[in-house]
Amino acid sequence: MTRIQPILVLTVVLCSSFNGSYLAQAKQAQLSGSKRPPMDQKVAQNIAQVPPPTSPPTNVESGGKAGEGCRAVRVPLTALAPLGKSTTGSTVVWGLTDAEYPTLWFHIPYQLTANQPGEFQLQDEQGKQIYAKPVTVVDVSTGVVGLQLSKSLQVNKNYLWTFTVRCDREDPSKDLFVRGWIQRTKLSANLAAQLKKAKPRDRAKLYIKENIQFEALTVLGDLRRSNPSDAEIAADWRALLTSLGFEQVAAKPVVEIRPLKE
Questions:
Q1: The pLDDT value given to residue 22
Q2: What pLDDT shows up at residue 17?
Q3: Domain that holds residue 186
Q4: Percent of the chain at pLDDT above 90?
Q5: Which has the closest alpha carbon to 55: 2, 125, 3, 6?
Q6: pLDDT of residue 51 exceeding 90
Q7: What's the CATH code of the domain at 223?
């Protein structure tokens, strides 16, 4: 079966590993899946299987025409998610987690209310819906929000997630959405031991080195939320988001991690 090769976001550490030419490319890149700056590739020890070829297209930025239902914004609805490249050359929004109940990260530029709600959906590889949860964020400012899954993910299985903003409840064609794949991987005993001993910033670097990008985002996102004035954490967060092509989101506040309740 065709296999997927994760795209390496960093090689050793968050900040010092970047070179000037790559950062220059990142600053000039448009924030859309196939137009992000090229990155070095690495064959991970746990190479995952490609999502089904009949799966719907993935995207990290919202589609639709801003202003028809939701107001126009400078930085659109964005999923902070890595890319994967299959051996056939196709690129998909795809990344790894080791968490049973992982957190997915989104830049949400709108207040989500009963009249303009968000919705998170999760499906398995066969397209079976696992759940669909409404999301409202009326008690915080707009910014970066982490949504923690409430369903256990099985190891080595791909799951399709979709986050939608219902801009006009009477007209679904005006919905804005982002979509991608996540797969839970099993850590080696050695890596698990290193992660257990590491301090949070070092833990993020280990996750990045192993291409487990969703967990790197969660470690640094939580640190950024808890320590908004810490310059070193801010630099780590910016470096990671820049490497993924989301430099415009890096300055946005990390406002909340919200469990998706049953």
A1: 26
A2: 35
A3: 4-259
A4: 50
A5: 125
A6: no
A7: 2.60.40.1220
pLDDT at 198 over 80: yes
User: What is the mean predicted confidence (pLDDT) over 91-114?
Assistant: 91
Instruction: Pull the structure tokens for residue 213.
Output: 């990008």
pTM: 0.79
End-to-end C-alpha distance for the chain, whole angstroms:
35
Number of domains composing the chain: 1
